[in-house]
Design brief:
- The protein is mostly helical.
- It has helices at residues 25-39, 44-51, 55-62, 70-79, 84-107.
- 55% of the residues lie in helices and 0% in strands.
- The longest helix is centred in the last third of the chain and has 24 residues, at 84-107.
């Protein structure tokens, strides 16, 4: 047998590689709350009691497992000495930071608030 074909088989993936996942709002907000809490060296229990929410619920919010209502977010923010707008602003900045590489490649150079329509 004298074949000139290479000895190795071509490998064809069964599934395409998954696209990078965009960060979820609840993950970003949870990270902001946890970051602020730990920067203040406060416990989950302390912040949850001040916000009048349960410790497990605050933990789930911080881990991005629960999407909190605006009332709960405002209470958590107040317990950290922040306003709701402060937490949302920090989360927006963090979301923009995490999304920056993906947004440049997928949406071109559209600026915030600009909508591109297909021709």
């Amino acid at each position: 047998m004298s074949s000139h074909a290479p000895d190795h088989a071509r490998i064809v993936p069964l599934r395409p590689a998954p696209a990078p996942r965009e960060p979820l709002w609840r993950d970003v907000v949870g990270d902001v709350l946890r970051g602020e809490r730990t920067a203040q060296q406060r416990t989950l229990k302390d912040v949850a009691e001040a916000a009048r929410i349960s410790v497990p619920y605050l933990s789930e919010i911080e881990r991005g497992r629960k999407e909190a209502s605006s009332e709960v977010l405002a209470a958590a923010a107040r317990s950290l000495g922040l306003g709701l707008a402060d937490v949302l602003s920090l989360a927006r900045r963090e979301l923009a930071r995490r999304s920056a590489p993906a947004s440049r490649t997928s949406r071109g150079s559209a600026s915030f608030g600009e909508v591109r329509l297909a021709a």
